[in-house]
Design brief:
alpha/beta, Leucine-rich repeat, LRR (right-handed beta-alpha superhelix), 10-stranded mixed beta sheet, 5-stranded parallel beta sheet, 2 helices, 17 strands, about 15% helix, about 20% strand, elongated, LRR_N_plant-typ, transferase, EC 2.7.11.1
Length: about 280
């Protein structure tokens, strides 16, 4: 078999493609920088710590404050804006320009309005923290597309409607915080459990069912807070027989009936907080 010989035309084509790679990265950076500036312009006031986000600094995106870039693509992979005292709306952020995001943290601000369904396009996210804002309306079902999530916090907002069953797709999630909202009871039978979940916070919602069966299948749970809801019925035996790693359990301010099953032999001796 004859070896394929490179012609001058092939060599020129290879050189041209190699030349395009940094241009493509630079173009993507500029698009993202412009999208971030547009978002910043929607803030009621701009924190001084975001002075690096400017038109004169468009070509230096990876050195902007609160921004981390992917080492290979040089595009934004992390946005860290927790407790920046920002007043704005998530609808002003162009999720479609940031497909490589792995971390998005805007907790502890004043973001209001709905969570856009476009957030479901960020399928590389491992950390999503929208907690402690003033977000409203329903949790979008599209969040079920974020199957790489390890950490999801929506706690302490004004979210309402039923918890979308699509969240059951998040099989890698370890921390799930939905407490302090106005969420209603979903069809728990559509939840099969989260094998890696260690921290589940559902406190302070409008959940009025019996104890959700799927929780008993989350065998890595160390923290469980269901307080401040309207849960009814008896606490199932599986809470103590299956959840042997529990260290903190809070079931207060509900409508549970009957005694807690203290006398079962597998009750976790590691529990340091039981309410």
């Amino acid at each position: 078999m004859k070896a394929v010989q490179e012609t001058p035309l092939h060599l020129l084509l290879h050189i041209f493609l190699l030349f395009l790679l940094p241009l493509q990265a630079t173009s993507s950076q500029r698009i993202q920088a412009e999208a971030l500036l547009k978002w910043k312009n929607s803030f009621a006031s701009s924190p001084p710590s975001l002075n690096s986000w400017s038109l004169t600094n468009l070509n230096n995106l990876c050195n902007w404050s609160a921004i981390v870039c992917n080492h290979n693509t040089k595009t934004v992979s992390e946005i860290h804006l927790a407790n920046f005292n920002i007043t704005s709306a998530l609808t002003q952020f162009n999720f479609n320009k940031f497909f490589d995001l792995t971390h998005f943290n805007v907790s502890g601000n004043n973001f209001s309005g709905p969570i856009p369904s476009a957030i479901g396009n960020l399928t590389k996210l491992t950390t999503l923290d929208l907690g402690n804002n003033t977000l409203e309306r329903e949790v979008p079902a599209e969040m079920g597309k974020l199957t790489e999530l390890h950490f999801l916090s929506l706690n302490n907002n004004y979210l309402s409607g039923t918890i979308p069953y699509q969240l059951d797709n998040l099989k890698k999630v370890q921390y799930l915080l939905l407490g302090g909202n106005h969420l209603d009871t979903p069809d728990w039978s559509k939840f099969s459990g989260f094998p890696l979940l260690s921290y589940l916070d559902l406190y302070g919602n409008n959940l009025d069912s019996e104890f959700p069966e799927f929780i008993s299948e989350c065998r890595n749970l160390t923290f469980l807070d269901l307080s401040g809801n309207l849960f009814t019925g008896q606490i199932p035996k599986l809470v103590v027989t299956n959840l042997v790693k529990l260290e903190s359990l809070n079931l207060t301010d509900n409508r549970f009936q009957g005694p807690f099953p203290y006398n079962f032999p597998n009750i976790n001796s590691n529990i340091t907080r039981l309410r």
